[in-house]
């Protein structure tokens, strides 16, 4: 039986968690999922049962506050909603709950909310397309394709996307690497290989990066594997990035501790 030591525990009194604050809610969910993974690896039924009860509290609070949560916070919360639902209630989250939250994110972006990024909306629509493209509104499909076409044009001029932040550039690269670009380019594999090669050197340099860029770097690495990154390279990159995130000063302490647990699971 594998026993993984936890970092210094940081307990979370739910009365002190502001469930309208997406950072706090997402950090709490991150810790719950990390602890659940550790308990699963350790084979501890009592720990799994305890975490499931805490996940049920998180879920109930989110269901209560989700309709009034600021759209910019919904991105982080919905990233954990399904897995927490499975931990707490042993079944997938209802699709409408996540879809409604994502619709509010898209509407806020279109209304000019600068806290929501173009890549956020592209990921939301792309994930919906992957689940069932028939349920994606034609207007969203059209916007998604037009944006993809623009990204391709810009990347052919400079694949580093110099006019946007490094985090956004990495997220763009990750999205393009995962996308089916057959209708947009006659040389999809060659294009993706060049795009991956352009951004891959960044995996060696994590010092001084903020948490947003580190997370984008992690998304890129996972999107580039296995076609453009070897398993060995991915493993080394993930360990390096998770270590940096576990000490990132712009994250909440609970989020840092959760990344430390994520890192410990790799040993």
Protein model, in words:
The chain is mainly α. 67% of the residues lie in helices and 0% in strands. α1 (22-42) runs parallel beside α11 (253-264), α5 (118-132) packs across α6 (138-157) and α7 (166-178) runs antiparallel to α8. The radius of gyration is 19 Å and the shape is globular. Residues 1-10 have low confidence and may be disordered.
Radius of gyration, in angstroms, nearest whole number: 19 Å
- Succession of helices and strands: HHHHHHHHHHH
Q: Describe the largest sheet.
A: none
Beta-strand fraction estimate = under 5%
Structural class: mainly alpha
Poorly predicted residue ranges = 1-10
Shape: globular
N→C terminal distance? 14 Å
How many discrete domains? 2
Mean pLDDT: 91
Number of strands: 0
Tally of DSSP helical segments? 11
Helix content: 55-70%
List the helices and strands and how they pair.
Elements lengths: L21 H21 L2 H21 L5 H19 L5 H16 L7 H15 L5 H20 L8 H13 L9 H12 L11 H14 L6 H15 L7 H12 L3
Summarize the structure.
The chain is mostly helical and 267 residues long. It has 11 helices and no strands.
Features:
mainly alpha; disordered N terminus; globular; 11 helices; 2 domains; 67% helix; 267 residues
């Amino acid at each position: 039986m594998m026993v993984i030591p936890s970092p210094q525990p940081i307990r979370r009194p739910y009365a002190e968690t502001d469930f309208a604050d997406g950072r706090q809610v997402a950090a709490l969910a991150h810790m719950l999922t990390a602890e659940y993974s550790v308990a699963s690896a350790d084979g501890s039924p009592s720990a799994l049962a305890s975490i499931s009860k805490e996940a049920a509290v998180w879920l109930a609070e989110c269901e209560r506050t989700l309709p009034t949560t600021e759209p910019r916070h919904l991105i982080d919360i919905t990233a954990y909603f399904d897995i927490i639902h499975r931990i707490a209630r042993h079944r997938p989250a209802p699709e409408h709950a996540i879809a409604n939250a994502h619709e509010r994110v898209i509407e806020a972006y279109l209304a000019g909310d600068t806290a929501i990024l173009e890549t956020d909306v592209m990921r939301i629509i792309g994930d919906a397309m992957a689940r069932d493209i028939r349920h994606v509104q034609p207007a969203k499909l059209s916007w998604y394709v037009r944006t993809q076409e623009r990204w391709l044009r810009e990347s052919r001029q400079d694949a580093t996307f110099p006019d946007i932040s490094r985090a956004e550039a990495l997220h763009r690269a990750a999205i393009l690497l995962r996308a089916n670009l057959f209708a947009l380019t006659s040389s999809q594999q060659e294009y993706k290989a060049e795009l991956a090669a352009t951004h891959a050197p960044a995996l060696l340099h994590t010092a001084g990066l903020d948490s947003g860029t580190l997370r984008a770097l992690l998304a890129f690495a996972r999107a580039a594997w296995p076609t453009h990154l070897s398993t060995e390279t991915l493993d080394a990159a993930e360990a390096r990035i998770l270590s940096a995130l576990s000490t990132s000063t712009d994250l909440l302490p609970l989020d840092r501790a959760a990344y430390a647990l994520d890192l410990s699971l790799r040993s």
